[in-house]
Structures are given as C-alpha cells and as structure tokens.
C-alpha cells in the first residue's frame, strides 16, 4: 500500500483554561481527523505558553490506540494554562515570538481549545499573520463547563458536569432524607458558575415535584436575598423535613459583591472565590439553628469522566474533527459551534461561526429558564438541559477496579530558537 504523502505545513493544537471530562475527546477528534488528511499535528505543552516557549509535543509519536483512548480519559493530555494575550500594541514581543515559533516549525494552522478568554486569544492570533506577514489560520475550538459561550447551543464539557451535578444532587438528597429526623436538616452543594447559572440549573434535573430536591437553587443571575432564602429553607424543612440547596459560586448580594469573594484575583484578572457553601451554611445554622452539611465538589465536577454524558462526549469529539475541517478548508477566525434542530428527539449539527461573535461575550441563563420565585428551573429549562445529560459513555475498567486511562508519551519536538520566558 502506498504511503500517504503528508500535507505541507503542520497543525498546532493547544488546550486552555480549566479542563473538562471530555476535552481530550476533542484532542482525539483533532488528531485523528488531521492524520486522515495527512497533516502532522504538534501540541503545545501547557497551552499558549507552550507555543511561546517553543515547548511543542510531536503527536506522531503516539499510537493509534493511545489517541483513541483519549476519548475516555479526563484531564488535559497536553497540559493547559490560564494566560491571556494582551493586544498587539500592548505586547508586540509575544506576537513576534509566536510568529517566530510558527515559522521555525512550519506551523500553518493553530487550533485553540478553550472558553471565553481562550476565544479572545484565538481571535487575536487569527489576526497576527496578516499584521506580521505570516500565513497562519487560527480556529477556536469550544470548551467550557460553564456553558457560557455565545452562539453555540451548548459547550462541550457542560453536559458531563451537568450530569454529575444532577446525579450528585439526587444521591446526596436521598442520604439527607434518610437521616433528617435525627441529624442533618439542610444540605448545601456549591457548584461552579461565576456569572452564569447553567450548572446550578442542571441540578434541577434531579427532581420534578414541588417537594423534590433540590428545593432551593441560587443563581448568579439573581440578586441574593438573605431573608427570602432563609424563609424558603425554613418553610421547606417544616413541610418536607429537610432541604437541599444548590448554589452557584458566583451569587452576589444587592451591592454586587460576591458572597464568597476571597480578596484575590486569578491570571485572567477574575475575582477568586473562597466558598459560598460555608457562608450559606453559617447563615442557616446561625439564623435557623438547623444542623447543616455542605459540599464543594470543585475539580471533581469537571473531571468525573466515569459519569460523563454520552451526548457531551460525542459533541466534544465532533467539534475537534470539525475544527480540522475548517482549518484545512482555509477558514480563519472561526469556531465550530453546536446547532440544535430538535429537543425530542435531540438532534444537532456542527457549523462554523465567526470568532468575533463569541470572544469576550457571555451567555447567561435566560430569564425564562428560572422559576418566578427565583429558586428553581422552568419546563423550558428542562427541555433544554435534559438532552445534554443523556446517555452514558463509561471508560473501560481494569481488574483493579479503576478506570483505564491513557498517559501519552508527549515526546518533545527539538527546539530551534532561543529561550523565551512569557
């Protein structure tokens, strides 16, 4: 059989921001699609920092089986980072360095897999080729558990964290209900969601009736009303015997302050949050006197590949494949997005969208998805959310009872340039 001749130029793929249970499925989609087209793929070690530092990984050193196993492996196989490029005018040296690295390794396509801030970086990178005289095509690849990217119906990574949240809410509530007569009366689950309450809303899938958990959902789209919250908890405990609360980390008071502001900021300039669940637990205990337990799943909610949504895993792979198709078709400054055509049965497709319609934009929970009392989700929200957690795609398990996840070789590409410290 004749050997397929590789296409001229290389494709560079990088992961950015907080990883998800299915971001590696996107990586698999990228690499497998590129291999099928005869294009060699490099990966940047630790996101855009790897590109700046010329720390590149040769994915050709990985077997077909290893790349396929990425579809069921959580974490970021090549490393990720939180690093936002400034404008070309503010930091021209970084852009010149990127072009220098691209030239040195004949990189013609750059695919950046991330969320809002990563889309901004991808957009900026898509513009540097013309400005600095190098032909580089840049494609954004959607990913975020927050589900807050504009244009796309949903974001790869969200469906799995939504499933984890709904299942955890249901299971923990059964535990609380069984012990409520002599022990915990209120259970509080804190979930991710700085400005958008998509993950908190997903908890609402755990139950349907008026007395089914979660009894209280706190959304960042609503101003936190302490008196109304405590009254709702009290009334629920008196009627049901116990109460489950799910709270977004980003809920704010009437003054616009995060309830859990830790007083520090992350690499993107975002306020770092110190834990809204213990704050709420203190309120309930201090004002109502109930025994309270709280939980902060943190990284667990976004890394739980064993409980991933099948729909989410399939979409994550599909956007990776589509990103390669966009790049090799000569597109620039676009991002493949998910377009929904039907709720039941759930049908979707992938289409390219302009990056400038997504970068620096944020999609919040629609008002029509939040119940009038502000503490639950509507039927419209259920219709939107339910298909995204549908199906299971469990990893294979070994004889030791643990999932069989892959660890790549991540063989480094030989550097050709002087060191650069971002």
From TrEMBL:
Give the residues the record marks as binding Mg(2+). Answer: 116
Q: Pathway it belongs to?
A: Carbohydrate degradation; glycolysis; D-glyceraldehyde 3-phosphate and glycerone phosphate from D-glucose: step 3/4
Organism's domain of life? Bacteria
Activity regulation statement: Non-allosteric.
* All copies of domain Phosphofructokinase, residue ranges: 12-295
Give one Pfam family. PFK
Residues annotated as site: Important for catalytic activity: 143
Positions that bind diphosphate: 18
SUPFAM superfamilies according to UniProt: Phosphofructokinase
Query: Where, by residue number, is the active site?
Result: 146 (proton acceptor)
Annotated substrate binding sites: 144-146, 192-194, 249, 299-302
Q: Which UniProt keywords apply?
A: Cytoplasm, Glycolysis, Kinase, Magnesium, Metal-binding, Transferase
Q: Where in the cell is it found?
A: Cytoplasm
EC numbers for this chain? 2.7.1.90
Co-factor(s): Mg(2+)
Instruction: Give the catalysed reaction(s), semicolon-separated.
Output: beta-D-fructose 6-phosphate + diphosphate = beta-D-fructose 1,6-bisphosphate + phosphate + H(+)
User: What are the site positions for Important for catalytic activity and substrate specificity?
Assistant: 117
Give the family per the record.
Belongs to the phosphofructokinase type A (PFKA) family. PPi-dependent PFK group II subfamily. Clade 'B2' sub-subfamily.
> Quaternary structure per UniProt?
Homodimer.
The UniProt function text for this chain reads: Catalyzes the phosphorylation of D-fructose 6-phosphate, the first committing step of glycolysis. Uses inorganic phosphate (PPi) as phosphoryl donor instead of ATP like common ATP-dependent phosphofructokinases (ATP-PFKs), which renders the reaction reversible, and can thus function both in glycolysis and gluconeogenesis. Consistently, PPi-PFK can replace the enzymes of both the forward (ATP-PFK) and reverse (fructose-bisphosphatase (FBPase)) reactions.
Q: What is this protein called?
A: Pyrophosphate--fructose 6-phosphate 1-phosphotransferase
